[in-house]
């Protein structure tokens, strides 16, 4: 087995026993990432400084310094998370040569802990999409079967962890973008409570939803990464300090698993339905109790999400005007043309669609009918979740209605949006959730189980997911 195929915790152990060096781990992982780049296209930019970072870890180990477990572990960072001195494009022509002058809070924490940032991972343009196929640098293929998409929008992050081209990865999740690619690539993806990880340095898409999530091959690895990046930050007023005990226990006895009946009545592929049901039965066999619950507004969540997130996107993306930074058109004779042409040339179709939709739902005469109604629905959905969590500890569902997403298969935006049915509700309510692999469909494509926890119950989500992994869930075999 090659070094890059080990989990982060195994590698941390090997480093401490001096069975390998951080430089060797980095070189092996980079080799895998580069070998697969032509087919999978998981990366947009590799980090030229990474080798030095790995050497610095080796020097500290040689000095006998005690280092965090994540030190020397190669990590991919989604390309909408700012990295000082390292190009950060959001997979957009608009930012194709943007080099941030500062690190995101999460990146700073990782660097301080000695993690090795191997490169910037590919994604949907400005994180808008579900198949990592809307970006300027081409689509990301699924390492499990390259005819399929890696999912999106953090497709490069999930694909690199799945293929061994990174050991861990950061992604961003606005409406499912960490959980969906994790599920489709057969790895673990965690989306924290809104505010658990600072958004400082995360290039905004929809600020009231955006979260930085962690991807790993096991629950423990994912927990290791999340534990480094979580915590309050004065530079993000919405950030919170959520307490995380050091370790995971994995107790399933007596855990009440909620099944939202409205969700299970919606369209779910047969293989996904039976796999996820057997995952839930496995937990029941190990002491968990299943409860049927109802969240009446849950099926309207997708519509409201696309209204609110597009409204926020239209405002957040107004800054790309060709003046301060980003693409500037050279075909213009006056200021208005400069704005218009820079934006028309710099943004791709999906981003333009969201900006137009968002501007429309906020416009005079339509705001009450669309934006304000969607915000009211969000409020009642949050109340529905709160009530649900009086009756259960965790809510279980599929992550995605299908196992595989064929590349280029679906070009119909409303159908693509509808497939966010399982991930968007908890995004609306800012709740923590995790995607864990469970089984494969008939074609051998991975299926994911989603567990959603109550507000700030991030540790509980990890702990139950860990319990599930301990009893044999969490694998694709
Ligand atoms: N598929 C959703 C969208 O396109 C979610 C994207 C995300 O979480 N960044 O909006």
Succession of helices and strands: HHEHEHEEEHEHEEHEHHEHHHHEHHEEH
| Total domains | 1
Instruction: Look at the helices and sheets and give the structural class.
Output: alpha/beta
Query: What is the topology, as strand order, of the major beta sheet?
Result: 1-3-2-6-8-7-12-13-11-9-10
CATH superfamily: Amidase signature (AS) domain
| Uncertain spans | none
**Given the C-alpha coordinates, what overall shape results?**
globular
Could you report the average pLDDT, rounded to the nearest whole number?
96
CATH architecture title: Alpha-Beta Complex
Q: Which bin fits the share of residues in helices?
A: 25-40%
Reported for the largest beta sheet, the result is: 11 strands, mixed
User: Helical stretch count?
Assistant: 16
CATH topology title: Amidase signature (AS) enzymes
Radius of gyration: 21 Å
Q: Report the span from N to C terminus.
A: 18 Å
CATH class, anyone? Alpha Beta
Task: List cofactors, ions and other ligands.
Answer: glutamine
What fraction of residues sit in β-strands?
5-15%
Write the layout of secondary structure elements.
Blueprint: H1 8-16, H2 22-40, E1 43-46, H3 50-62, E2 74-78, H4 105-112, E3 116-121, E4 141-142, E5 145-149, H5 155-163, E6 168-173, H6 179-185, E7 188-191, E8 211-216, H7 219-229, E9 256-260, H8 261-264, H9 270-285, E10 289-293, H10 301-316, H11 335-346, H12 349-362, H13 368-391, E11 394-398, H14 413-418, H15 424-429, E12 433-440, E13 446-453, H16 458-470
Helix pairs in contact: 2-3, 2-5, 10-12, 10-13
Bound molecules: glutamine.
């Amino acid at each position: 087995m090659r070094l890059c195929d080990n989990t982060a915790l195994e590698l941390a152990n090997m480093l401490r026993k001096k069975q390998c060096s951080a430089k060797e781990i980095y070189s092996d992982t980079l080799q895998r990432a580069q070998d697969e780049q032509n087919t999978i296209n998981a990366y947009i930019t590799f980090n030229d400084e990474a080798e030095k970072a790995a050497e610095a870890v080796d020097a500290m180990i040689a000095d006998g310094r005690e280092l965090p477990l994540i030190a020397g572990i190669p990590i991919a960072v989604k390309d909408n998370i700012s990295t000082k001195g390292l190009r950060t494009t959001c997979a957009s022509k608009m930012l194709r040569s943007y080099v941030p002058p500062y690190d995101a809070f999460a990146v700073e924490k990782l660097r301080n802990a000695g993690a090795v940032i191997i490169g910037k991972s590919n994604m949907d343009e400005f994180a808008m999409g579900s198949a990592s196929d809307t970006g300027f640098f081409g689509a990301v293929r699924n390492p499990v079967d390259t005819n399929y998409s890696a999912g999106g929008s953090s497709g490069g992050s999930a694909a690199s962890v799945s293929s061994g081209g990174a050991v861990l990865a950061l992604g961003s999740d606005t409406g499912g973008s960490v959980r969906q690619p994790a599920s489709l690539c057969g790895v673990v993806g965690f989306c924290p409570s809104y505010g658990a990880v600072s958004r400082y340095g995360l290039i905004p898409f929809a600020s009231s939803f955006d979260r930085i999530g962690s991807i790993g091959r096991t629950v423990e690895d994912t927990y290791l990464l999340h534990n480094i990046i979580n915590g309050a930050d004065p530079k993000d007023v919405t950030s919170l300090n959520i307490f995380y005990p050091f370790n995971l226990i994995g107790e399933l006895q007596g855990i009440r698993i909620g099944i939202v009946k409205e969700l299970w009545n919606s369209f779910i592929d047969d293989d996904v339905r039976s796999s996820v049901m057997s995952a839930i039965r496995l937990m029941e066999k190990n002491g968990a109790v299943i409860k049927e619950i109802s969240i009446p507004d849950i099926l309207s969540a997708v519509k409201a999400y696309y209204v609110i997130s597009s409204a926020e996107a239209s405002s957040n993306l107004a800054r790309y005007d060709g003046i301060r930074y980003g693409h500037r058109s050279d075909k213009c004779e006056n200021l208005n043309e400069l704005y218009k042409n820079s934006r028309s040339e710099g943004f791709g179709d999906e981003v333009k669609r969201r900006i137009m939709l968002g501007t429309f739902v906020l416009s005079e005469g339509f705001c009450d009918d669309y934006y304000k109604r969607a915000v009211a629905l969000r409020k009642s959905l949050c109340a529905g979740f709160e009530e649900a969590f009086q009756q259960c500890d965790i809510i279980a569902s599929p992550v995605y209605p299908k196992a595989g997403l064929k590349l280029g298969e679906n070009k119909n935006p409303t159908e693509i949006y509808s497939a966010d049915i399982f991930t968007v509700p908890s995004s609306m309510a800012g709740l923590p959730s995790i995607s864990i692999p469970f089984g494969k469909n008939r074609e051998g494509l991975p299926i994911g189980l989603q567990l959603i926890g109550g507000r700030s119950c991030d540790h509980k989500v990890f702990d139950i997911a860990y319990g599930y992994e301990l009893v044999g869930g969490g694998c694709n075999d």
